[in-house]
Amino acid sequence: MFRFLIRRAIGALVILLIISAITFVLFYIAPRDPARAACGKICTPETLALVKQNLGIADPLPVQYWHWLEGVFVGRDYSSFGHCPAPCLGYSFRNREPVLATIEDRFPTTLSLSVGAAVVFVLVGVGTGMLAAVKQGKALDKIASSASLIFSSMQIYIVGVVAMYYLCDQWHILSRPKEVPFDQDPAGWFSGLLLPWLVLALIFTANYTRMTRSQLVETMSEDYVRTARAKGLSRRTVFFRFAWRGAMGPIVTIFGLDVGLLLGGAIITEKVFGLHGIGALSIKAVYDNDLPMILGVVLVAAAAIVFFNIIVDAVYALIDPRVRLA
């Protein structure tokens, strides 16, 4: 198991290096010049050259990438900003502060939003899908299938606005979304994020309900499940020991990808509810043409997805030992 995880970790590191190189090239060969954007309206060629030198973008592109990569591991010195300790993802042209410091300031909001929503849509979605599979063909199954189809067709920017209007402003059932540090006020943190959790989970819950139901229905028709039933095992034992375990593989995969994407920034959700997380930061960076910030957010999102893929591989290895040989 340990060797299996080491191989996956090395592969993840290579993937992140490739992603960083591609992202660096794509953003730094963009038509808009970040030095000119930082220079201001009145910018002479001499001033522009000085700004490029201060920002560290006067060198050829491969040299810039090497300096950036070096800063990630050992830190980097900027003539205009000073020393950026490792891991240094660069300095923001607009904010005049390290990119990593800004991301660390915004990440707790995104983490709280992602984890809370993930708990809701996994418990509700998988639980509803299991009930629908057990009650296949009955009223509960039909209701769950129809509801999941309806909810999966909804959009967050519609559901979020409607939910805030009725649940918060008209009926006063829930508090309007707000950002409260968990360590300062756990109750305020919970109430401030409850509505975004429910709205975000509503869309994902529908997908997990349908997937869980379909996987369980397919698994319960397998020969080894029928054999377990024929040997006289109880229905609960057959369901949880054989059918449920065999159906969890695809669900674990999708869950890892979904959580990784959410940690990379739930852009629409954060925008709708006015939350200042990684998603809102990425939108602002695009508007400001803040290329180091964009690069940093992209790498954080990629790292989150790669990290949860490793976790998915580990869970797969526990569920099915044959995966360890891959």
Report on this model:
The chain is mainly alpha-helical. It has a domain at 106-278: MetI-like fold, CATH 1.10.3720.10. The protein has 13 helices and two strands. Strand 1 (76-78) and strand 2 (82-84) form a beta hairpin. The chain starts with a helix and ends in a 7-residue tail after the last helix.
Summarize the structure.
With 326 residues, the protein is mostly helical. Helix content is 74%, strand content 2%.
CATH architectural label of the domain at 106-278? Orthogonal Bundle
Gyration radius from CA atoms, angstroms: 24 Å
Uncertain residue segments: none
Task: Report the mean per-residue pLDDT as an integer.
Answer: 83
CATH class of the domain at 106-278: Mainly Alpha
Strand percentage lies at under 5%
Number of helices: 13
Spell out the CATH superfamily of the domain at 106-278: MetI-like
Q: Could you give the distance between the termini?
A: 11 Å
Q: H/E order of the elements?
A: HHHHEEHHHHHHHHH
Q: Name the shape in a single word.
A: globular
Largest sheet, if any? 2 strands, antiparallel
Strand order of the largest sheet: 1-2
User: What would the CATH topology of the domain at 106-278 be?
Assistant: MetI-like fold
Structural class: mainly alpha
